[in-house]
Amino acid sequence: MSFSYNDYEDSFTNLPIYLYNIQRANPHSYTYIKTNVMDRFELCFVAIRCVINAFIGCMLPVIFISSVPVAIDGNNNTTSIAFGVGVANSVNSYTWFLMRLKDAIGAGTEVVLITNMGDTIASCIGQVFPDAYHGYSSNSVLNYCQLRIGQSRNLDYLFFRVCKAYITQDFKQTFSKLSHGAQEVLHNIGHMKWARAYFPNIRWNVLNIKIPEFLMVLSVSQHNVPIITLMDVIVQHIQQTFAERCVMGDMNRHTCSCGKWRSLGITCGHALVAAPDMVQIYYRGDVFRTTYHTRNMNVVPPPSEWEIPKPLSAVLIPM
């Protein structure tokens, strides 16, 4: 049986089949579709099982959510741990998405959630993750402050000195140098939301997480693209990310698959490991290797090899 992979309208009809075959290729992955009472498409959610396992077992328990939920490993590499496509950016849409994300990572998983100030999704965090720490990215806090008081001399420099201070004494000393207007705005936000000196331990010192440029482009240029085409591009990007971060080294032969050790005669970064007894588990070399080495993400077969689930849900093009 042939499937229309790149036709805009037919891609919604075939979306349940595509998601079913993601499940076949990657068992125990999370795929959901939300339709209205007329079976018109509204939202879908995908989280690949091996990526979720890597996040829960090996990555920092911090998720930055903007256009997609992004996590970081112990080497500051960013990875999209799930993604969704929807018709409208609304409180209801984001709440549904967060509920599916909570299903994927497990309701009992302790996690930190970071958003940009003013994003619609920021207002939904407390409803779905009432016990989780929710902070703001430092860049968005600075932008908000600038909008409220205007650009002033040394605001950027002083703000980031305040933001990055490790102890409250240094924080207060630099905070006092800000204008009264800036101090008032930042105080009303709440220091725990953005200042390192007041972070709870579980924020893991994360000020910002940079979303991969590729995913940011998709988030603003997805209109009129068949939904299966869009989703398959994202799936392939995640798969490529895991493949690129898996290198093989031989400490006895002084070789690494990246080629730098052999070419330069100097140990490459992949072969350098920190003292395991002095760092958190997320920064250890063996944990970093486990993140990407043993968690293969299987390719979704071409449409000609798709298996049709029974019963098949009806999904129509959104109005």
UniProtKB/TrEMBL annotation:
The keyword rRNA-binding does not apply. The chain crosses the membrane at residues 43-65. The lineage of its organism: Eukaryota, Viridiplantae, Streptophyta, Embryophyta, Tracheophyta. GO terms for molecular function: zinc ion binding. This is SWIM-type domain-containing protein. The keyword rRNA-binding does not apply. Pfam families: SWIM. Keywords: Membrane, Metal-binding, Transmembrane, Transmembrane helix, Zinc, Zinc-finger. Residues 245-279 form the SWIM-type domain.
